[in-house]
């Protein structure tokens, strides 16, 4: 027996970051940056198309408090990073889920620990300054993830959710690839340690990956090679010959000993349902492309759409229709 679930993913954008951008450009109206406009947008979405799970990225501490108040009486549970780790500019990954789900386990991705665990053979050799710099960059170019295991008590159906946000800077494509690799490795270890007796649990890997599907950031995979992050996550492999592997990007023989990366591959909800990723999920005056995704494993995708869907080709975000520079991604799945 299965159940249909609706899943959303949205980068709400951190108020503090937007405030500094607005002051620098003077070109965007203050209303687009107010917490209330984001809460209103979420409230409207939940009222017209109820969600079972909503993954949010770049949630400020103020926004976390507002979400707790907003959804406390709406039969939803909010999972957010501990208060002790929050700073005004922190890009926190939060998950809202319907209380029909029971929280079985949770984990907050620790980047520094993951580097030490999975790259221990490279992190302490100290034979190359450029290699040491790369390991340092892996630790300081922050990427975040919140991982949950949920259960529907009546049917005992389990679901794992990983909401993540990769580092933004396109100059560090190899860092983003390794961060994606580390997050997936930690995700599978988390599931195995929490559910030792279960051979497989359906997985959702969603969020802002700050990586386009194609190597050309303004193009599509049909234009040529896949980006490093997208290729790793959808094929399960990244060759040392890929342009985003440090062996190619860093152009130093020290990285020739870094192996090709391998993980269990995921499918994309939008690619499976619509035949392609959205043309864009992030659109500003300087960039337009798809960098947000809903990946899955072991579920049946039923639908996939971006919200709002009535945007003109020349519209940039945020605007009166959406109070962030990212679109909301919505997908329905059949969970068995």
From TrEMBL:
<dbReference type="InterPro" id="IPR050410">
    <property type="entry name" value="CCR4/nocturin_mRNA_transcr"/>
</dbReference>
<dbReference type="GO" id="GO:0000175">
    <property type="term" value="F:3'-5'-RNA exonuclease activity"/>
</dbReference>
<keyword id="KW-0255">Endonuclease</keyword>
<keyword id="KW-0378">Hydrolase</keyword>
<dbReference type="Pfam" id="PF03372">
    <property type="entry name" value="Exo_endo_phos"/>
</dbReference>
<dbReference type="InterPro" id="IPR036691">
    <property type="entry name" value="Endo/exonu/phosph_ase_sf"/>
</dbReference>
<dbReference type="GO" id="GO:0004519">
    <property type="term" value="F:endonuclease activity"/>
</dbReference>
<protein>
    <submittedName>
        <fullName>Endonuclease</fullName>
    </submittedName>
</protein>
<dbReference type="InterPro" id="IPR005135">
    <property type="entry name" value="Endo/exonuclease/phosphatase"/>
</dbReference>
<keyword id="KW-0540">Nuclease</keyword>
<feature type="domain" description="Endonuclease/exonuclease/phosphatase">
    <location>
        <begin position="9"/>
        <end position="326"/>
    </location>
</feature>
């Amino acid at each position: 027996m299965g159940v249909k679930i609706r899943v959303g993913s949205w980068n709400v954008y951190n108020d503090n970051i937007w405030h500094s951008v607005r002051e620098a450009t003077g070109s965007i109206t203050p209303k687009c940056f107010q917490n209330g406009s984001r809460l209103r947008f979420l409230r409207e979405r939940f009222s017209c198309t109820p969600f079972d799970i909503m993954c949010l990225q770049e949630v400020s501490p103020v926004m976390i408090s507002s979400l707790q108040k907003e959804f406390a009486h709406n039969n939803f549970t909010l999972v957010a990073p501990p208060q002790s780790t929050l700073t005004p500019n922190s890009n926190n990954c939060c998950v809202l889920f319907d209380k029909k789900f029971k929280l079985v386990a949770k984990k907050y991705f620790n980047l520094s620990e993951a580097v030490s665990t999975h790259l221990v053979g490279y992190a302490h050799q100290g034979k190359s300054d450029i290699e040491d710099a790369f390991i340092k960059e892996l630790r300081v170019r922050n990427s975040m993830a919140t991982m949950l295991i949920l259960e529907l008590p009546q049917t005992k159906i389990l679901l794992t959710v990983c909401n993540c946000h990769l580092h933004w800077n396109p100059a560090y494509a190899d860092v983003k690839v390794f961060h994606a690799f580390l997050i997936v490795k930690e995700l599978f270890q988390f599931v195995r340690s929490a559910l030792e007796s279960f051979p497989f649990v359906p997985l959702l890997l969603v969020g802002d990956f700050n990586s386009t599907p194609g190597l050309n950031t303004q193009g599509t995979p049909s234009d040529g090679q896949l980006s490093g992050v997208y290729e790793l996550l959808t094929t399960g492999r990244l060759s040392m010959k890929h342009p985003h592997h440090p062996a190619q990007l860093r152009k130093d023989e020290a990285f020739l000993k870094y192996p090709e990366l391998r993980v269990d591959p995921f499918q994309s909800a939008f690619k499976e349902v619509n035949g392609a990723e959205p043309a864009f999920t992030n659109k500003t005056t300087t960039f337009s492309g798809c960098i947000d995704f809903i990946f899955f494993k072991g579920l049946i995708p039923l639908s996939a759409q971006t919200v709002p869907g009535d945007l003109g080709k020349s519209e940039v975000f945020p605007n009166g229709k959406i109070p962030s520079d990212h679109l909301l991604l919505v997908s329905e799945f059949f969970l068995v």
